[in-house]
Every structure is written in C-alpha cells, then in structure tokens.
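Sequence, structure tokens reproduced for reference:
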Amino acid sequence: MERFINSTLVLTFYMFKLNVEKNLKNLLAQADIKINTDDPSRQWDIQVHKSEFYDRAIRGGTLAFGRSYMEGWWDCQDLTDFFTKVLEVRLEDKVSGIMALLNSYRAGGLNEEGKASVKMIYNAWLNNPQDNDGSLKVGTTHYDAGNDLFQAMLGESMTYTCGYWQKSEQGLWKAAETLEEAQDHKLDMICKKLDLEAEDTVLDIGCGFGSFAKYAAEKYGAKVVGITISQEQLDFAKEDCKDLDVEFVFHDYLKLSKPPALAGHLFDKIVSIGMFEHVGSKNYSNYFKFVDEHLKQGGISLIHTIGNDKETKMCEPWTATYVFPNSNLPTERQIRKTKPGHFFEQDFHEFGKGNYDPTIKIWHDNLMEAWSELSAGNKKHTEKFRRMFKYYLNGSEALFKSGQGHLYQFVYSKGELKPSYKIVR
C-alpha cells in the first residue's frame, strides 16, 4: 500500500526553500489543508506541535513525515480525510517526487532520513531487494507483529485482504452487512472463480492465517497446501485448521529447494490472495515460473492483489521501513506482460473502492478499540507503535476512498479451457 504515502513524498520534496514552513503550507493548501487552525469543521487539517517539524519534513521526505507523526510531532483529527484530500487532488502529479528529491539532495538539503530514502530508492532500481532473503523481511517486520494484534484487528475470519461488500450480480449473495459476511463473500467468490470442486488440490501462495484454506476445505471439500513466510501466521493456521485436510509450510517461493508438500507436486488450482504485492517487479517472472511448475495442464490460477496506476520499483520509504519492506504494487500491464504465453486470461475484476475502504475502516476501529487491552503489559505495543499502525491503516483507507487504490483479481488458465470459463460476480 504505497500511493497514500507517495503523495506525502511529493508534498515534502516539492522544492528546497529556506522558508520551509511557508513552503509546506503552500503545498498543502493545494489540497485545502491548513496547519494549526482551530476550525472544528476542518478535521482534515493538521496540528503541528514542534516547530522543527517543517524543516524535518522538507528535508526528510515521507520517512520523516511518517516518523514525526509516530513520535507525536503533529496530529490530525481525521487522518483518513487528510490523506484522502491529498490523493484526490493528485499532488503527486503536480511535481515529480523523485526528481524533486534528487534536486534537494544536490542542493545539500536532505537530512539523514532524506538520505536514507534516496539510498532505498537507488537500491530498488539498481538491485533486487528480494535477494539475500530480502523477501522474508516483510514476514518478520509486519506479519509477525503478533497474532493477538491481528485477531483484534481482523475479527473472526482472520482474513487480511479486501472483503466483498457488494451484492452479487448473479444473485449468489446479498450485500454484506458485517465484516465476516464480506470476507465470506470474497472467499466464496474466489472458490467459484477457481471452479473449485471436491477433492481438487489447491496451492495457496502466501496463505496468511489460513482463512482461504479453511474455507475451501470446509465449504468445497478441497485439499489445500498453504505456504507462508510468517512463523506467526504458520502457527495460527496450523492450530486453526488442525482437523481439516490442509497442510501449511514455511516456504519462500523464490527458493529452489522445495519442501515435501511441493516437490514434484502438481495442483488443480493455485491462488495467491494479498501476496503479489510483496513479489517485487523484478520477480514477477519468477512468480509465474513457480506457478507454472506446480499447476496442472488445464488448471486455473487466481491472483488477488492491490494494484497501482504507475510502475514502481518499491513502495515509498516510510512504508518500506515500517510496514511492507521490499514490496511494491503491480500495474495491470506488468502482470499481463510477464505471465507465460500459454496462460490464458479468463477474467479480470477490479473492485477496490467501496470494498477495501470499508474493510480497512473496520480493521482500524477494531484495533483502536482493543488497544488498551493489547498494550497492557506488552512492551512492544507502545504508543509509537499504535500511531504507526493508525498512520498505515488510515492512509490505506484513504487510498481506496479516494479512488487511487485498485484491487485486481486475475484468473488464468494453463492452456485453453473446455467447456468455456464462466464469469462470477
């Protein structure tokens, strides 16, 4: 989830000027955002508590902008509205974020946070951040944050991806009224898009807490193997699905050595739900190679991923540091141009706005409501950690609320299908 923070990259690196306060105020004014107002109707305005914030934000970019929020240097009554306004006017399109950053760098205007951002961006362009176990870092940084935290946030389904709130066009389900219903509808829609049948073998790449595997096994009688790079997720999934015909394995798809659950095995169906965001643009062909190696001829594969309008090499520096290291969002074109020629696109479905934003809002509200209990006696769950998660969730909600975020579902068959594929909505 990167574009909500990319907008702050733009606003913090617009141009280096000596009057950093005026510079930042002028840029924010383009999104109708003011600083230190006392108008209760303008809950998207920000309140700056330390005068050093302006210099830090201008010289340090999004890493400094987000860190200074985590450290209490500034606040906003409605952080979601703040990010939404920034995104709706497309501040990122008014100036070139990377060029402005480089201009500031050449002018000697960057602080240590700005220099660290430049280093991350250059590294993503020159190298493959997923190499040398870089692909595992998102597991330890984010997904291992604590199962108690995610249980409080995600609710009963333990599904950490977009719910489907809309009424089915084919009368398969009514509009969802609760998060659990929305997640059930999403999981059922995926099963139907896979044309899942009893005894089908399914590989779930990036299985999360095992919610899809559990649903597919219980509702459809499928036999599922799930792989994850999070030990916390693995432990939860194994316990939650211990009585079902599913198997979970700690495995990075980039590794050449295969665990017994994968070695020499071909599956009827392969799915990745909320995992492709972590593949990285330099590994898309590796991902499809892995799918091709394990999918039967005539099998079906589904990719469920957040998407971007612009091709990038990494998510922005704050997100890369605190939430999703070494990740970046794909475009439609990137996915289509790297899939194998013998993979036929059977369906493409985009449903981010109106589905992901209400999902994330509930996650945020659940987490904030449970925070007192979660943080009691837990040294890791500090106030700084809470503000980090709030910043991430509110910004992510704004990404979809503004229409800037996309949620893609691609369905591919390995070879042509007979009979023809049936679209599910």
